[in-house]
Amino acid sequence: MEYMFAPGFFGTKAPFFMDLMTLIVAFLPLLVYFGILFARQGHYDLHRWYQWGLFFFSLIVVGWFEYGVRVGGGFRAYVEGNHWPRLLLFAFLILHIVIAFFTLLWWSRTLIKADWNFRHRHLPGGFTLRHIRAGTLSAVGISLTALSGVWVYLMLFVF
Q1: CA 11 to chain centre
Q2: How confident is the model at residue 25 (pLDDT cuts 50, 70, 90)?
Q3: With contact defined as beta carbons under 8 Å apart, do 32 and 54 qualify?
C-alpha cells in the first residue's frame, strides 16, 4: 500500500490517494448524470444497474479513502503546516462529512425504494414522480458532496 502515499499527480503536497479520490469525487456528479440519461432514454434496467454499481463503487472508494486517511495520520497529519485556521478547516470538514453522510442515506433510500417499486408494482425502473424527486435530491447531494470534498482538498493542499 506504499503507492497510496507516493506523491500525487496534481503536483501538490497531497499523496497519490488524495489526488485520485479528489478526481473521482469531482467526476461523480457527471457519472450520476450519465445514469440519469439512461432513464430518460427509457433504458430503465441499465439505469438501475448503473446506479447500483455507482453506489457500490462509491462505497468502496470512500472505504479506501478512509483507510488512507487513518494510516496517513488522520486529520491532524494533513492540517500540519497549513496556514488556514484549524477550526475553520475542521468546521468545513464536518460540513462535508454531514453532507456526504446524509446524501449516502438518501441515495441508498432512493435505490432501495426504486427497487421495491420495480419488483412489486412492475413499474419500469421504479418510475414515479416521487422517484424522480428523490433521485434529483440524491444528485444534488452528490454534487454538494463533490463540491465540498474538492474544496476541502483545495484548502488542505492548494491554497
Answers
A1: 23
A2: very high
A3: yes
Return the C-alpha cell found at 149: 470534498
Q: What percent of the chain has pLDDT over 90?
A: 81
Query: Which three-class secondary structure state does DSSP give residue 128?
Result: coil
Q: What is the pTM of this model?
A: 0.90
Write the DSSP assignment of 54-110 as a string of letters: HHHHHHHHHHHHHHHHHHTTHHHHHHTT-SS-HHHHHHHHHHHHHHHHHHHHHHHHH
Per-residue pLDDT at 59: 96
Mind listing the pLDDT tens digit for each residue in 31-41? 999 999 999 99
**Grid cell locating 83:** 496556514
Question: How many Å is the Cα radius of gyration of the chain?
Answer: 18
Rounded distance between C-alpha atoms, residue 159 and residue 151, angstroms: 10
Distance CA 74, CA 65 (A): 11
The one-letter amino acid at 112:
I
Contacts of 101 (CB under 8 A, 6+ apart): none
- In sequence order, the β-bridge partners of residue 15 are 7
Contact 141, 120 (CB under 8 A): no
